[in-house]
Amino acid sequence: MTAIFSPRKLDSHKGDYGKVFILAGSLGMSGAAILAAKGALRTGAGLVFLGIPQILNQIVETELLEVISKPLKQTKDGCLSLRNYSFIYNFIRKIDALVLGPGLSQNRETQRLIRRLIKTVKKPLVIDADAINALVGNLSLLLSPTAKQQPAIKVITPHLGEFAHLLKIDAGEIQKKREEIAVDFARRYKLTVVLKGFRTIVTDGEGEVYINRTGNPGMATAGMGDILSGMLGALLARGFSPFKAAKAAVYLHGVAGDLAAREKGEEGMIAGDVVEKIPEAIKLNSDHSDKNQRLQR
Fold first, then answer.
1. Which helix (H) or strand (E) holds 166?
2. What angle is formed at CA 67 by the lines to CA 63 and CA 72, rounded to 5 degrees?
3. The CATH number of 15-292 is which of 3.40.1190.20, 3.40.50.450, 3.40.50.150, 3.10.129.10?
4. Tens of pLDDT along 172-189?
C-alpha cells in the first residue's frame, strides 16, 4: 500500500496532529481505557484526553504519562454518570474526534449517557464495545434528524457477537454473509463499518469494501479491540476520511500483531505487546517495504 502518513514538517507542533477525546473505562475495566489511549498515542495523535470515572484516575495517571486525564462524575458502581453530559458535550468542541465505548460497562445510567452523546455529537465518532451495546433497540440514533442534515462522521467497530446482538440475528447467519450484511448496514445508517474478526471487513456503505489480510490468531485475546478504537480515533482526529482511517487502522493493527507474534509467539502475546509494535508497523509502511504491501480488496 502507499504510505499512510506524509513526512512531518520541521515546524510541526502537537496541534497539527489531532486532539482525541476517549471516553472509556469503569471499575474493573481500567485496562480498556489505558489500551485505547495508548493506541491513539502510538498512532501519532498530538493530544489524547481520557475521560474516565474518578475512581480510575490514579491508575490512569500512573500508567499514562503522556495522556491528559479527565476524571468525571461516577455512579455508585464506578461507572460514568449521566451528570457528565454537559461537561462532555462542551469539551468536545475543543477536540477533533471522540472515541466512545471501551470498558464503559452496561450500567443503565452510563448507557443513557452514551445514547445521548451518539445522538448529539457532531465531531467524528468511533462507536466501540459498550457504546455498541447501547444502540441495541436504538439504531435510529445513528440517523440524522432530517434528510437535509449532513450525517456526522461515525465509524462503528463490532465483532461478530456484538453485530449479531445489535441486529438481533444469529451470529451464524452473519458469518455466512458478512460482507453483504456489513455493506447493507453501512449504507442504511450512512456510516463506516469495521466488522472485526478473521479477515476484518471495512465498508463505507457506498460500495467501497476493504478486506484486511494482516493479523494472526494470537490477537484473539482481551484488549485488542480497545487498541484499534484508539488508533481509529487518532486517524480521524488527523483529518483522515472515515473509510481511509478505518482501512489504515485495521491494516496497521494487524501488522503490529504480526510483529508481536514474530517476537513473542501467538500463544503468549498480549494486547500490550501489540500496542508497542504500532510505531514499527507505521515505520515499515513509511519505508514502502514490499513485504507489507498487503492492502487488497
1. helix 160-167
2. 90
3. 3.40.1190.20
4. 999 999 999 999 999 999
